[in-house]
Design a protein that fits this description.
By secondary structure, the chain is of the alpha/beta class. It contains 12 helices and 7 strands. The protein is elongated, with a radius of gyration of 31 Å.
Length: 344
């Protein structure tokens, strides 16, 4: 009896051992199949990448659509309405959101609580990404609030031309909203006469706008003729802006953006060249200033700094354009590659 039980137990043990062995083998084989499948997928992925490479460097310059945010803190009267019109026409096709940042009373700076709210909102509002924000707001340092920064872009204009355009815009309006009555409607004083009479509206200090827009929210940014603000603006333009164009070269600006961020701007150049968006907002009447008027402005520190900032931005843009575009404004494509990769 005892021997029978022992033998019976031994048989059960062998049976259980066999079952466990089979289970282990099945588990191993399943795991092996998964590894083979993953290796195959990885190989296909690598092959796909190689098909999009030139000597080992990826051709694609697309940003992740998960977190792509562009902020155009547009300077007034620089052609910004025409450019924004392109974004609104492209947003459905290219699948991104366009949002206008409207600051109360047309202020160009935000209160400190609003700065914090805006920085956190813009960087964390995932439902509105990829996105293109635009508004007449001075540069904002997002790192100050512990938030990731958007890609800043902007357009500036020859400073006196911008000021003259705005002067006549307040009197005669534009073709964008022709029936809207502006606050200086009916005032027919020319810009030259305004300067000659020493009126406050055409004081050279009123040129001080593009420098502070790039300088930011510091109090000294808005002191006309501040050399500190001028240096800060140049520093921000180089370090914190993806691209800054000029009104006089809007077409080239659009072409560089399309080459750089195709996620948002694919088709922008073609749309711009159609003409419907190239001059969306044009002042109804504008009289060029006389030579003596221009001479008065050139003697002011504000004009000198604003003009130097414009020339600085123009040089930088021309350099970026020359490295990015062919003469016909098409994309030069990738101009770097990897080599001597070790170990193989």
């Amino acid at each position: 009896m005892t021997i029978f039980v022992t033998c019976n137990l031994s048989a059960r043990t062998v049976f259980l051992f066999n079952i466990i062995t089979v289970l282990v083998l099945v588990t191993y084989l399943v795991d092996l199949e998964k590894k083979i499948a993953n290796a195959k997928d990885s190989s296909e992925h690598d092959s796909s990448l190689l098909n999009n490479q030139v000597n080992g460097a990826l051709l694609s310059n697309s940003f992740s659509s998960q977190n792509l945010t562009v902020f155009y803190n547009r300077v007034p009267k620089t052609g910004s309405t025409s450019f924004v019109g392109l974004a609104y026409d492209l947003c459905s096709k290219n699948k991104f959101k366009v949002l206008h940042v409207n600051v109360s009373k047309n202020a160009h700076t935000m209160s400190l609580p609003d700065q914090l709210r805006f920085a956190r909102n813009l960087s964390q509002w995932d439902l509105k990404q990829p996105s293109f924000y635009h508004g007449h707001v001075a540069y904002l340092d997002f790192s100050k609030f512990g938030s990731s920064s958007p890609l800043f872009i902007n357009i500036i204009r020859q400073p006196l031309d911008r000021m003259v355009s705005y002067y006549y815009f307040l009197r005669y309006g534009d073709d964008f909203r022709p029936h809207l009555i502006r606050k200086k409607q009916g005032n027919k004083t020319s810009f030259d006469d305004c300067v000659k009479e020493g009126q406050a509206e055409c004081d050279p200090n009123n040129l001080w706008l593009q420098v502070p827009f790039f300088c930011g929210h510091h109090a000294d940014c808005w002191i006309p003729g501040s050399s500190w603000a001028f240096e800060q603006a140049k520093n921000n333009l180089v370090k914190n802006y993806l691209l800054v164009g000029v009104t006089e070269k809007m077409e080239e600006f659009v072409a560089v953006l399309e080459a750089t961020i195709p996620n948002l701007f694919k088709g922008a150049l073609k749309l711009y060249r159609k003409g419907s968006k190239s001059h969306l907002r044009k002042t109804n009447m504008k009289i060029p200033p006389k030579a003596e008027t221009i001479a008065r402005f050139r003697n002011s520190t504000v004009w000198q700094l604003e003009n130097e900032f414009y020339e600085f931005a123009l040089r930088q843009f021309e350099y970026v354009k020359s490295r990015t575009l062919k003469p016909d404004l098409s994309d030069k494509g990738q101009q770097f590659f990897y080599e001597k990769i070790r170990p193989k």
